[in-house]
Amino acid sequence: MKKLLMMVFASIMMMTTLAACTPAVQTVDIGIVLPTRDEPRWIQDEERFKAALESTDYSVEILFSQGSTATELSNVETLLAKGIKVLIITAQDGDAAAAAVEKAKAEGVTVIAYDRLITNTEAVDYYVTFDSVAVGEAQAQYLVDQATGTGNPLYLYAGAASDNNAFLFFEGAWNVLQPKIADGTFVIKNSSEAVNLQAKATLTRAEMSAVLGQITTNWDFNTAKNLAESHLTAAAEADKGNVFILAPNDGTARAIADAFAADTAVTSFKVTGQDAEKASVQYIIDGKQSMTVFKDVRTLVTDAIDMAVTVLEGNTPQTTGSYNNGSKDVAAKQTDVVVVTQDNVRAALITSGYYLESDFTFR
Ligand code: BGC
Question: Are residues 52 and 160 in the same domain?
Fold first, then answer.
């Protein structure tokens, strides 16, 4: 009997110890959903979020959607199950993400659209963003500044039509390029839809969609490369020579630049980009990409975290303007962008402390 009692006592002790070891259900205060690990741009955001979060007491979890709206939705569901109060999300597809954020809203979560606006839904509370129209304007202004005379061949490329930013970038570029197409400085070589619209200073969303339909890279390097190669195959020798290329971001810029560099009828090319991805910074140093638009992700991350913490503390975040998403005006905080070329690459990206000198090979 004594032995039996000892055994019962021992097993009770073991169970208590085990229970003490079982972790409590993990709760998360702020959920972050980013679109893909396949583009260095979003790895930048992840790293900067992690750095910024070291100094907060709130618990945070970052999940990636890997280019899939379905994964994005299940990521949001996972975070909701962990009790998040704030969701910071970069939509894979601006319209399709509505379903995910509507679920979050239904559970009382505050939704912050990060970099990309979520469209045609009421379920977005705030938007932190760069000035995306200014990105496109800066890219186009760079090309304009490099061009002399008339008849310069112009090749246009754009981002994914499922990303509202692709329209903002193109709108900005068109603002600056269109007068220079109208006055003969540039001649569009790779989009009949853009040629049809070239007399129009401002394009509607539907008109932009028609152009994007011909020149979208889908934010995908291979698509960009194949598209550029097919445009070069279709173009006559006279449409090459010294060419000007509007490339929407760094990943696609490198792919498009490589395709143009491989064509012997292309004597020289100027190509734009954005994001200041390390690989493109090296391309700029090496003279293989002409410029990038630097979007200081640290600022966007700080703005998003500050907003989330303000909400968690029961206060209302400060905003600087608003963006209409088709259903409502979303209160927004916007950040400026910086043009980087070979001339200021060191000052803008290394002296500023954004990257390390040792990340690059200077000649
Ligand atoms: C972002 C860009 C990025 C692109 C492709 C856009 O929404 O603003 O920085 O290069 O998506 O991921």
Answer: no
- Chain centroid to CA 3: 68
Domain residues for the domain of 237 are: 132-295+341-351+354-359
pLDDT tens readout for residues 20-73: 455 556 899 999 999 999 999 999 999 999 999 988 899 999 999 999 999 999
CA nearest neighbour of 69 among 5, 162, 164: 162
| Tokens 């039996």 sit on residue | 4
Digit-coded pLDDT (tens) for 164-194: 999 999 999 999 999 999 999 999 999 999 9
* Cβ neighbours of 61 (radius 10 Å): 16
Query: Is the pLDDT assigned to residue 100 strictly greater than 80?
Result: yes
Domain check: are 155 and 69 in the same one? no
First to last CA, the chain: 85
pTM here is: 0.93
Protein residues whose CB sits closer than 6 Å to any atom of ligand 1:
39, 41, 115-116, 159, 163, 165, 219, 249, 274-275
